[in-house]
Design a protein that fits this description.
alpha/beta; 4-stranded antiparallel sheet; 6 helices; Rossmann fold
């Protein structure tokens, strides 16, 4: 994909794409994350594994700035989460949420992908090019006119990934992306993530309790249990 015209901070593989230090998150009086620390290098791919309730989704939301931290430090792509610098560059972080989120209103596959271009300072023709390129890369161009609500889990995940690719991200965060996929769809998604990491230097962090995903080679594995790394 050709680089976009907005400003991008370039970081080498030796830099920290993510830096989490002594992160604590408390919600409704319950301490969910307990002094968590994590470093992820640029162009690395990482799976954070753990059972339901371990705090995996909470960690992702803290990285995205969607929930406040009680204590600690979180830096994403060199910027402190919540800072002005982070707000200016947060489009460089792509997020694929759990497929279990249901959508029953009429929206096509192309319209889902187009969401990824909404905040980009580009003309219509350039946005169209980005959408088409992203859908080809994610292997979902044939879903352009299909109704999103009628698609399989694997098809929805490909469209969500294409939406992220429209942002020309440097970091991709995925929440249980394989949990509802059949073996073939899981293999296709994991292969695509590996390809994006190896060919584009895209940093990939996914959280999962899928034992099959944990057998993939070339991924660093960290295990989260009750809000701390085991």
């Amino acid at each position: 994909m050709r680089p976009l015209i907005y400003s991008v901070v370039h970081m080498s593989a030796a830099d920290n794409c993510l830096l989490v230090e002594n992160l604590n998150v408390t919600r409704d009086g319950t301490r969910i994350l307990r002094g968590l620390s994590l470093r992820v290098a640029c162009a690395e791919r990482l799976i954070i594994a753990g059972p339901n309730g371990a705090g995996k989704t909470t960690l992702l939301k803290a990285l995205l700035g969607l929930i406040p931290k009680t204590a600690g430090r979180v830096r994403v792509l060199g910027a402190e989460v919540g800072s002005r610098e982070w707000l200016r560059g947060r489009r460089r972080v792509g997020y694929v949420n759990q497929e279990s989120v249901q959508v029953d209103f009429p929206i096509s596959g192309r319209e889902v992908v187009e969401i990824g271009t909404c905040s980009l300072p580009l003309g219509r023709a350039e946005k169209v090019r980005l959408i088409e390129e992203a859908m080809r890369t994610a292997g979902c161009a044939h879903l352009e006119s299909k109704m999103y609500a009628r698609l399989s889990g694997g098809e929805k995940q490909k469209l969500s990934l294409a939406r992220c690719l429209c942002q020309d991200p440097q970091l991709l965060l995925l929440d249980e992306p394989t949990s509802s996929l059949d073996p073939q769809s899981r293999a296709e998604l994991m292969g695509l993530l590996r390809s994006l990491n190896e060919t584009r230097g895209l940093t990939v962090l996914m959280v999962s309790h899928d034992s099959q995903a944990l057998t993939e080679s070339g991924w660093r594995i960290e295990r989260l249990e009750a809000g701390v790394f085991a």
